[in-house]
Amino acid sequence: MGLVDANERALFERVIERVYVCDPDLEGELVRALGVDAVEAVIAEQGELESFRRLQNQPAQRGRSVEAQLERFFGGRSGNKLRYAGLLAAAMPLDRVPAPLADLIRAVVASPRRGLSTPGGACAA
Fold first, then answer.
1. Using alpha carbons only, what angle is made at residue 116 by residues 115 and 117, rounded to the nearest 5 degrees?
2. Which long-range contacts (C-beta less than 8 Å, at least 24 apart) are formed by 38-43?
3. Model pLDDT, residue 114
4. Start-to-end Cα distance in the chain
5. What per-residue confidence (pLDDT) applies to 77?
6. pLDDT the model gives residue 112
7. What is the model's pLDDT at position 111?
């Protein structure tokens, strides 16, 4: 079983029995579940809110939604997507966990084989 981004679904469905799909990706799911204010608080805790504000003021970003700006911010630096996915997940109240992630967790807990690995950057069990 695995947790994948929507654009990777077909690739993983060929080789993994159960695929849980994040739309469009895990960061997008976490942003929707937490809300923009909470995500910006996480960014502020990392000392990067000023950097995010500079990105928002760039001409190419001004007309975009905050969610699209956050997507660009997370993808703009090497390692940022992975780092912020962990930080946002840690900030997530348990009653707001996005459905694909909650479904995967339930499946892993119920599985007789509980080893986790991350081939190719995806989460799989």
1. 125
2. 38/91, 39/70, 39/88, 41/91, 42/84, 42/87, 42/88, 42/91, 43/73, 43/84
3. 56
4. 5
5. 87
6. 77
7. 84
CA distance linking residue 16 with residue 125, whole number of Å: 10
Give dist(CA 6, CA 30) in Å, integer.
Answer: 14
CB atoms within 10 A of CB 40: 16
Grouped pLDDT means (10 residues each) for the chain, 125 residues: 94 94 94 97 98 97 96 92 95 96 94 59 46
Structure tokens at 78: 């090497």
C-alpha 57, offset from chain centre = 24
Q: Label residue 97 left, alpha or beta by phi (over 0 means left) and psi (-120 to 50 means alpha).
A: beta
Backbone angles phi, psi at 84, to 5 degrees: -70, -30
Give residues with Cβ within 8 angstroms of 6, minimum separation 6.
Answer: 21, 22, 23, 24, 25
